[in-house]
């Protein structure tokens, strides 16, 4: 109850003091003007902090209204006049991650160890590289003569992205099973880490386990993804302070995304006599088309999650 009263006061308390006057006591304009710039961000963390700070419950969540939530996209505006503005969206994402895991050293498989000595270990590596780029532009028109402002408009978005995985192993794969008198050995089934990869799950980099296998991945590269989308939107904002507004937005998106052919490489064995070789394989491309509420660059076209948020706060300057 205390949290609800606090949020209500934050959102609407200032209106009772200023009584819909569109300038502050210092003469500052409340609403945006021609040539103003603006930047929007997710307001959920602010409301969660307020709720948690005043009732001691760290599990409070802000209300989710469905636009802008998981976005990593910068959303900016440039006002043409007090009734219209250009919108700009940008995301540049690049990730290069390395995951490591230790496994037993197969070369010491035949060695006898006296406690506390033990069989040695070697290192497996999984390197993941991911790139996302999203740019967008649009225009909005505004309605309302008070602190409560409605708006509507449309955006167009373009995005590209791809990913690459590379694996290396501490134990060598051999075409021959051999254990020497000194204990060193080679094997056709080396002990290797099994990873969750980027193609399998968002939890990539997690170790599934360790296995002895005659085939293991070496390289994967997705095809380049290109996408285009258009999105109509409607929204509402309330100016709680001069040039500071809290609001929400909903939209309807139409989009098309195409991914080209990729490539994978595995290390395996075969033939007579038995040989070890790296074999290339083509990875088929794909395409997607859709129409849905707030779809463009949202959960359906998930490369950059641009253009999605819940409650938002916008600063004008």
Can you characterise this structure?
The chain has 317 residues and is mainly β. The protein has one domain (2-316). 9% of the residues lie in helices and 52% in strands. The protein has 2 helices and 16 strands. The protein has helices at 2-18, 44-55, and strands spanning 37-42, 74-81, 84-104, 121-143, 148-168, 178-179, 185-186, 191-195, 207-212, 216-221, 225-241, 244-259, 262-270, 275-283, 286-293, 312-316. The strands form 3 sheets. An 8-stranded antiparallel β-barrel has the order 1-2-3-4-5-11-12-16. Strand 4 (121-143) and strand 5 (148-168) form a beta hairpin. Helix 1 crosses helix 2. The model is unreliable at 1-19, 62-71 and 302-309 (pLDDT under 50).
Number of domains: 1
* Strand adjacency order, main sheet: 1-2-3-4-5-11-12-16
Strand content: over 45%
Element-by-element helix/strand order: HEHEEEEEEEEEEEEEEE
Shape: elongated
Based on DSSP secondary structure assignment, what is the total number of beta strands?
16
Contiguous uncertain segments of 5+ residues: 1-19, 62-71, 302-309
Contiguous helical run count: 2
Query: What does the largest sheet look like?
Result: 8 strands, antiparallel, barrel
Into which percent range does the helicity of residues fall? under 10%
Radius of gyration: 28 Å
Distance between the termini: 34 Å
- The overall pLDDT average reads 80
Structural class: mainly beta
